[in-house]
Sequence to fold (107 residues):
Amino acid sequence: MIFNVTNTFTKLNATKGTIQNASATYTIEVSDKNEENSGIILNPQEKYSFSDTTIYVRCANSEQAKVRYSSLVVASCACGGGDGGGTSSDDGDETITPTDIGGLFNP
Fold:
């Protein structure tokens, strides 16, 4: 699987959701380390989508996304670039491949 963190131009504060994939359960967390209200949990279905090969998590500038398998963080990305105003490019996008995280997406 590929975990793809993509900037959006909407502030998302925080979200948490669980993805079921085969026998594995992945928990996705998106939080803003610079906001006092980073603990707010939004509707997770609006923040990620997934297929057999890709997980997409949307987060705004300065936010961090983590994917957990059980309690272990198997992927972590900080979203950078963009000013949140809708005029900048997604130059902060990150892609983490299974080899980067030791293949834990296919336990």
Remarks:
- Residues 13 and 42 are 8 Å apart (CA to CA).
- The chain has one domain: 2-77.
- The mean pLDDT is 45.
- Residues 2-77 form one domain.
